[in-house]
Amino acid sequence: MTTAVELVRDVPFAIGGRTFHSRLMVGTGKYRNNETMVRAVEASGAEIVTVAVRRVNLDRREQEGILYHLDPKKYFLLANTAGCYTAEDAIRYALLAREAGFNEFVKLEVIGDQETLLPDVQGLLAAATILVKEGFKVLAYTNEDLVTARRLEDAGCAAVMPLASPIGSGLGLLNPYGVRTIKRRLKVPVVVDAGVGTASDACLTMEQGVDGILMNTALAAAQDPVAMAHAMRLAVEAGRAAYLAGRMPRREVAMPSSPLEGMLD
Amino acid sequence: MTETVDIVVNGEPRAVAQGLTLLELLQSLDLDPRAVIVEHNRAIVRRPALGAVRVVRGDAIELVHFVGGG
After folding, report:
1. Suppose A34 and one of A40, A69, A261, B8 were both cysteines; which one would form an S-S bond, judging by CB atoms 3.0 to 4.6 Å apart?
2. Does A65 touch chain B (CB under 8 A)?
3. If you ran DSSP here, which 8-state letter would residue A100 be given?
């Protein structure tokens, strides 16, 4: 299938010295079962998939590790530090994740508020600074604040990941201006992470010019996660293509598309 | 009768044989050492060293792996 993106000239999507073919990254949490998760990931066309670090369940064996289901040779595993509320915890989780031996990338989350899961930007910057020194390629989950985003870039992050709206909320892109501004001002890739609810959200997000999107709940909590994964794949491609194509200017008054001449008396 | 020592594995107290190595601990829990990351008293123990580290009383061990997440 010829995709829209192949019809327009695009630059490769590279993070931390690695090039990826899909601008859509997906999470692997909250699916009703592993089979649905695997099929949705496949349908999304994503190459980068996120995983979390958790204790092995010593009593019940049904909660197997995700690598029993997802082929680590087929996907680029991006470990997160989800659930961490301090820089110290996030660093501990990142070190454990790296020990799994797949790569030195980490999606850094330092959460500051239980209700909104908004980031603690002080803790985030502290953790990012240390992890970069430890040799990590840090993809930092942050809010849509330009100054924080710039500080994360200055700290050496490989990518900055502003939210569209709170994690798992599905509220869509609440601050297009903020996200667009971050993209315009940063040199490192900007990947919007969290809050996308449906395909139009993904499309609108990509139309801001950002490099990619990471989503999880939008797929996992859809009525049909596999079909939604397909929709998101198309939406990300469409949004990217539209951004590259360059939209028409907005006008406050109508302009006819058909000739004014040749009308009947 | 083997002497046992009390340790904590993933937050749960456990009595294990004295002198047990971390590798033997994983085997006793039916865990594949290639699929588990081991933290011993807050320090990561690399896979090749698992057979050389013996647990002692009061050790805190965390056994983690990758699960689904966003």
Report:
1. A69
2. yes
3. T
Asked if residues A191 and A210 have their Cβ atoms less than 8 Å apart, the reply is: yes
Contact A48, A20 (CB under 8 A): yes
The pLDDT > 70 percentage for chain B reads 99
Question: What pTM does this model have?
Answer: 0.91
Is A212 part of the contact surface with chain B (CB cutoff 8 Å)? no
| A32 burial type by CB count under 10 A (0-12 exposed, 13-18 middle, 19+ buried) | exposed
Domains identified in chain B and CATH numbers: 4-64 (3.10.20.30)
Match 């010593």 to its residue by tokens.
A58
Q: Name the DSSP letter for residue A20.
A: E
Reported as a single tens digit per residue, the pLDDT across A24-50 is: 999 999 999 999 999 999 999 999 999
What does the pLDDT look like over B61-70, one tens digit per residue?
A: 999 999 999 9
Distance (Å, rounded) from C-alpha A265 to C-alpha A217? 58
Domains of chain A by range and CATH? 16-245 (3.20.20.70)
H or E segment and range at residue A41: helix A34-44
Residues, chain A: 265
